[in-house]
């Protein structure tokens, strides 16, 4: 069919937001090739309204394999099902999210269908004249951006960082097909079953879903100074982030790291202090709605992306901002 496919994700019957982000990526590719975009969902107990939203967000078709045995993500079974669909429908390219499940699923599938896979892509495009999928991702420790293509095997497959693009707005005028498929018994790997779920003991920081992120970099000078950022973040019910420099120095733990080597975020408000703005960091924050940067160097790269920049000493600016917000709260505004 030469369709573009995106892999939707669900949890307990609810479609995850990253599914809609992928559709915005896939829509651009499909339009450039003048072909259709399909969303592939493996799961159980997903409502018709939820499936319809995939169409409203950009899909032309939704292939839904609905079975209780697919409710929990088990890579052996899910990869068998997806590979079977690929052999039957022969898509041009497949995009999945670089989530824990996407990073587990797609390597399995690549081996099963004998094709290539580019992980953690930040940009995607279609090559003029060949229709090859151009997959751009950081390489050599994030020091360069490499563009990769798979000219001799199909489908062409890539995983994409969550929060690296925004979902398309809901368009209720869009019309598409919801195609329900039956799970083939022979595709179920009965050797593996989920017996429970346990969170990692490490401090849980859901920085990717936060609406407000306040981050610090090398300019914070020491770990104790992050307290002023924590105070500011708490005033917005936000979370604290950090640049790779700050994490490498042990001032913050890895779950707080923002950038190509950490998390890609898309908050409503991003405030950063003491971060110069390396290309790796900018790639991790570029979809933020509003960016406020504080730095003593007026030529810092961060100001090229910021909506509002403050050239000044962060140890003067942040405390003053905290005080003003406290006064504002006290005045009942």
Automatic annotation (TrEMBL):
| Top-level taxon of the source organism | Bacteria
Cofactor: how and how many bound: Binds 1 FAD per dimer.
Q: What is this protein called?
A: Electron transfer flavoprotein alpha subunit apoprotein
Residues reported in the UniProt entry to bind FAD: 243-244, 257-261, 274-281, 295
Please indicate if the UniProt record lists Acyltransferase as a keyword.
Answer: no
SUPFAM superfamilies for this protein = Adenine nucleotide alpha hydrolases-like, DHS-like NAD/FAD-binding domain
Q: Name one GO biological process term.
A: fatty acid beta-oxidation using acyl-CoA dehydrogenase
Molecular function terms in GO for this entry? Answer: electron transfer activity; flavin adenine dinucleotide binding
Q: Which cofactor does it need?
A: FAD
Record carries keyword Flavoprotein = yes
- What keywords are annotated for this sequence in UniProt? FAD, Flavoprotein
| Positions of the Electron transfer flavoprotein alpha/beta-subunit N-terminal domain | 4-191
As for family, the record states: Belongs to the ETF alpha-subunit/FixB family.
| UniProt xrefs under SMART domains | ETF
